[in-house]
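Hi L.,

You mentioned the student needs an example of a multi-chain input paired with its predicted structure. This one should do, with 848 residues in total across all chains.
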Amino acid sequence: MTNTEITAPMAAAASKGRFSGAQQKLLAFGTLIILLIGFSLASPNFMQTTNILAILQATSVNGILAVAATLVIITGGIDLSVGTLMTFTAVIAGVVLTYWGMPLPLGILAAILTGALIGFTSGAIIAKMKIPPFIATLGMMLILKGLSLVISGTKPIYFNNTPSFPVISTGSITGDLIPGLPVPNGVLVLFLVAVLASYILGRTVLGRYCFALGSNEEAARLSGVSVDNWKMAIYALSGGICGIAGLVIASRLNSAQPALGQGYELDAIAAVVIGGTSLSGGRGTILGTLIGALIMSVLLNGLRILSMPQEWQTVVTGSIIIIAVYADMMRRRTA
Amino acid sequence: MQTVIEMRGIEKRFPGVHALKSARFDLRPGEVHALMGENGAGKSTLMKILAGIYRPDAGEILIDGKTIELASPRSAQAAGIGIIHQELSLMNDLTAAQNIFIGREPRRAFGLLDERLLNQQAAEIFKTMRLKLDPQATVGGLTIAKQQMVEIAKALSYNFRVLIMDEPTAALNDAEIADLFGIIRDLKVQGVGVVYISHKMDELKRIADRVTIMRDGEFVDTVPAADTPINTIITKMVGREVKDEPLQVPDTSKNPIALEVKGLRRGREIRDVSFSLARGEILGFAGLMGAGRTEVARAIFGADPLESGEILVHGKPQTIRSPHDAVKAGIGYLSEDRKHFGLALSMDVRNNIALASLKSFMRFPGRLDEKSMKNTAHDYIRKLAIRTPSDTQEVKLLSGGNQQKVVIAKWLLRNCDILIFDEPTRGIDVGAKSEIYQLLTNLSKSGKAIIVISSELPEVMRLSHRIAVMCEGRLTGILPGGAATGQEDIMRLATLRESMVVETDTEMQRRVG
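Structure written out for the whole complex:
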């Protein structure tokens, strides 16, 4: 028998497998296009450059957090602490830059390293103490929320000593280079983070182990993979990315707001799920997550332009999450 | 003779493939009709059509001579057709009785459950099965074999006229299989027709009346079970003769020792196990279920902890606390449960082969060298004759034999000198089995030290250069391989309980030495 011979159900399933990845992205992407067209027809104000830039700016923080969440979710885990971790790193940046008066690069470094360290801690609690990710990161979420308030004395920390700080988010390098393209830096940061995460997921050992853990953690362990160490590395990476999100949001507000943060984790997870990443692990893409985050902010922006009351916007967002996951499941069943 | 089921000209296409080509099958009341074929031959697809799970593209299904449409599992159940799936589908936190009557619980007024009647009815079913089981026992706490029995009890509770059993004995030991066959004989007397899917040839002779053989989605032949030689059935299944060379035991006594373990202990599961394994040697591990063979293997591999004991690899003591340590020492373990412990099912062949060696494909700055991974995968696909359309095929879509080869490739690539195979041919069809045997023999010839754990005695005897036998966590003896040892010798050691050891100790020494 030759290598190319395959048995019947195999081939049937094989042809299924080949389309699913492309279809998954197509579905989310199609939804995004339909939303864009729908809102442009409904309101002439929607397709204005300023509005599009506002949408992108609004996507940046949630998008970065969603990228962080994607990495963890692909391993079959979950991270509920991304929102309060973001706030915590912003507060740390505030302490380093405003209280201690250190230069900007040190503040940036401190925020990212703090994020990575906290992520690593969550990973260690999950991997070494064998506490389920949901519980471990729920605990971490509350701990960080509390610590942010304690460290800041419950008051916002303003970045008055660092005049260049707001540039991280609201400035525009592209606008300086090409006057017609004033994309805010926050969006560029999101773009860079996404490219980096995509590269790590698709091309590196760490990324491959993300999928292997989500697909079958025990098989990976029995293959001699140091599952615990890799898991901690993934949570640390995810935490570091949350640190970047912390810098972006603090820069946009020109302050670290210690009470902010809770609720962001659910928006991030929603974006991941709309983007077709499976909560049971083993499957997912950064591109899908980006599209998911865009769908959420386009929807909110569009509904606002159509003057829908804010309380109703939330209802629509919730419905979209359910519809998106249902559509994804139906596609999987019929494919 | 009257038929209860007749399937004619059944066609089923899945995207890109013709799964059933004018397949046919018939079943008489009160008979056991075995359905045989390699994985992918279409037996499961055909039976899923009969159970209403799939709809056929064309063809006719007749019950009692009348055409019937089986649109859903529910309509098949209404027509008196039940299926016991290979994978158990019980709710672990409910009791046996609650599982059996799930969705059909006896009720009293106001929607209250009649728990007493429920347990009573379950007890009655267990009684007809001659099964000693507490209806109020939580299913999750039962052995796999008992769970299988609960699954069967559930099917019996429907009073089906046709019962499809897909590999019902996969998790059962000999005594339990005998019980199951007793139940099947009772069903026959009641006029129930049983469709029996199994890979175990010896079971056919014991239980089946007729055998239908399928290959590549087509009907091959229906023969009487009693007077058809097994070899004829196998030849019809694979469409060619299966060559099985007799075992030649090489002299490995002068080879260097690859693995030596001394005094391994953990509670009652592993009790003072010591043995050594030479390069180029295949050491078989025989024993009944629960004898501790898998436990010893997992402990050597670092998957489970040890209380005490020493492990020497190539003469050097090694501290093995995790599979990671074991792999570094050159030990690979192929689990009996490939799907749970061996493969990342949703990943492709290429990545599964590379899974234990990913770091060696790492280039600056952490990038994976996909091209070299691809070439390596192609290399092993050719060397081990893995049947897959490409190296990017998801492994869950491969047949059992080819999945096993992927796991073997993974360890060969990792350059492991010591390979532990736990039930290497479980769920693998006959044709692929002899390929795996050949592969193991070739690996030993190339100098690998191999441990084979198997519950099938013919398999242990077919492969092993020496046979270690375990009972209740102890190594009760090591027998020479080849024609010198018979099944009875192994069985005697496998049932040598502790109380008996003292009396037979001297005899043992003589045998082992």
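You could point out the following to them. Residues 57 and 73 of chain B are 17 Å apart (CA to CA). Chain B has two domains: 5-238, 257-339+416-512.

Best wishes,
N.
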